[in-house]
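Thread: "does anyone have the structure for this chain?"

Original post by V.I.:
We have the sequence but no experimental structure in hand. Need at least a predicted one for the grant figures.
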Amino acid sequence: MKLIILLPLLVSILSFLAPKKIVKELGLSFSFSFLIYSLLLLLKFDATQDFDIKYEAIILESLGAQLSFGLDGLGMLMLILTNFVVLFVNLMALKKSYDHRFYGLLFMMQFALIGVFSCLNAFFFYVFWELALIPIYLILLMWGEGKNQKAAFVRFFVYTFLGSLMLLAGFILFNTYSKAINYQYVQMVVKTLEGNQSLVFSILMIVGFGVKIPIFPLHSWQAKTYVKAPSEGTILLSAIMLKMGLYGLIRWYIPFVDIKIPMIQNVAILLSVFGVVYGALIALRRNNLKQIAAFSSLSHVGLIAAGIFTANIYGLQGSIIQMVVHGINILGLFYIIDIIKNQTGTLNIQKLGGIASKAPKFAVLSLIIILGTIGVPLTNGFPGEMLLLMSVFIFNPYIGAVAGITIIIGAAYMLRVYQLTFFRTVTGKTENFTDISGVDFVALLIIAFLVLSIGFYPQFILDLSQTTSNHLVNLLSSRVF
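Reply from O.Q.:
Generated one for you, tokens below.
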């Protein structure tokens, strides 16, 4: 467990010191090694245990800050997703002129993300949460693109930093009023808040985590940040960093409150579902590829959040599998967008066309990834989306029906993008488009394989998340308020 956490930090330091001529190869080698190591851990992982892989150390014991780490099925899936995304960011960066600073910040962010997904102490969870903000902000600021990029990134920083402060206030409030001995997860989870205290705690945590997801109406930083960020930064934000908020709801909010309080649950689900429909409708009207992907992401994660707030087994299972699936699919979408931008110099779909005739391999792999994003049966987007819609429908059939509309809208805007970009007549921007090969071909082939393999056999992920979901459902049902 110590190696999982500390190695990315050591590689981050090494990357800052490494010569520019070897830093790319260094980053790629270590990121590949981290993914392989996490997969080897998975082979001996016991998904039936609450936290199978653990590490503890005494630090600041007088403040109740015992450093504890552990991985359950949810944490293991997020660990693998983190290492998978970082590897693909390194693959994309091979074509770019990034120096040692980029790689140092990238691995520092990986270190912080792994800390977020494995830390079992609220105090240090907050430390890792804040630490993850610093490297991504610097990556955006140093390698951002377009006009007024600084304003967009400052807005992102302010939003997320204020959200973080609300999380800290929530943790302090919980420990103060629940009389929890310290900030250890295993000791906090047996405590609860009631009445107004639970309401205030809920507001703090939902807003704090909701900014990162983002949940409507806390989303205004997202689209502009995605458009102005370098492709690698956009992938880090969308494929893995927003999972911090979803993970936080499952790990650090749901177990500590009476989720059945109508005012909390109803408002949270309504806002989440409104974001689902809002994001889909906005994506349908946009022509910028990054903006379309950004609002598509807002729509998808809104449904995941709604499933979490239903707090039933379908919602929790669906949310966990969809967190993994969204990470894979949005990574694939932004990888496709990066290839198109590098070859054509534009993100405007009205200026594109005919790519399928120029790059048939690229067109086929892109179609598979887009079908997964839509949630077509036998692709990875289908099982989780169906579980999430079922959970919302069980909670309220009318809200479930509204959420279900997004399946149609999602198909409309993604197929519109594919049709306008890959078909129609070849334009001046695409006449010299060449088919993918080498690293790009292998990368998209792997993503397309995951889209199909998870679609055919999602049970593997469901088995990993079963214990976490059952534990939360049993915990909530056993409480008497």
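V.I.: this helps a lot. The CA atoms of residues 191 and 334 lie 42 Å apart.
O.Q.: and The beta strands are 53-58, 66-71.
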